[in-house]
Design a protein that fits this description.
499 residues, mainly alpha, 68% helix, disordered N terminus
Length: 499
Amino acid sequence: MNKLTKQFSLQSLLTFLILLLPFSMVIASGGGTTADLTSSTYGIIAVIVFILAYSLVIGEEFLHLRKSKPVLIAAGIIWILVGMAYNGIGEPHAAGIAVKHNIEEYAELLLFLLAAMTYINALEERNIFDALRAWLVSRGYSLRTVFWITGLLAFVISPIADNLTTALLMAAVAMSVGAGNRIFIVLACINIVVAANAGGAFSPFGDITTLMVWQKGIVSFQQFFALMLPSLVNWLIPAAIMSFSVPKGNPAPIESKVIVKRGGYFMIALFLFTIAMAVSFHNFLHLPPVLGMMTGLGLLKLFAFYIKKKEAGTPEAESLENADMSSPALHAEEKPVGYDIFSILARAEWDTLMFFYGVILCVGGLGTLGYLAMISEMMYSGAGFMGTGITGANIIVGVLSAIVDNIPVMFAVLTMNPDMSLGQWLLVTLTAGVGGSMLSIGSAAGVALMGQARGMYTFFAHMKWTWAIALGYAASIWVHMWLNADLMDVAINSAKAAQ
């Protein structure tokens, strides 16, 4: 209990420190400006509200309170304070204009993620992931081989799916193979978290932070791949160090065979086609990528109708009819007959989606109160944060993302919109994406695996290897600075013109 108390106290302190840095959102009206209300009573109360809400988010593991609940309430309170503050200075419409822009930002993210999550859930229902897991488990590989295979697959799959789904899948494999071997499971989980976060850092589809950077139009789809080698180094260095501690032995192969259901492989192709559409809409038609994802979701729904017709009257359909359809998204009189895509859509991670809403609205409200100018000036103007310069500020962003979730940190940087070169934007994308690996609470993948491997993979078990992960973090930054040196002076406007 003493350890848990110390951990929570450390997290609360560090959370408070992070609040001194990345709050911002510009009012998106023609020629609109943000008033400096940071020293007003409204501004101070808003910061306190956010501190309290985010402390509850960080304490989710101990309180068992879903992370979306406190930030949803905090978002409402903060925007009440914003409205009152702007009414007090004679600008009653400014808050409304600002919050509409925040909601527009969230709507694009919500629909994009909803389409992606539905595809992932549909593939899971067709046994695609179970088949992959069964194939790996039945091979009879040594523990060290499984350590490397699960890490490599996490690095390769996360750019296409996402780091959270990939981490859960690979952790299930590691836990099946190494059942009862606590040391192996801990090392495998740490390796998977680092690999999944690193793999997600060089793809817009691999992490929420890279998705936000891409949707903002700052870095194009193909430019993300300049981070592939730095991301690979970020994973390989700690993996190589930890591999020496992996127990020896060859666990007995588990005879397990999983049949992929009808249309499973075609869904993979459809998902890849949907990703291609999202990229093409953005690159060639200059339309929001979410439009391509939602079009792909429509195609998935159409294919689901085909599956439903083909499986009508089959054992699979009967099992679905007899299944527990108690989902709040479905009414008793609307139980689906056979395969139903809407029941799969309802299984999206709504707590996470609502959490994103709360974070975006909270950060946006604090920025509208004037934190943008103050924080941007402190971190990115002149000598940068504490004299570290822009590069130092971007490296610090990655360290901060290990303490607090990288999503609010990256969202804050994006809304500050500092004047940086393409190479610096790639640097902050890299650091925010992989920096969270240094602590188990720094990424969604780490938090999820603490629940999946409860009692084995813990905050302190991960922290024992933070030094090795930090070496990989530093090495990945050095590789980026060396490999992409020609991009460090490339202005964003020039980069866009060259596309």
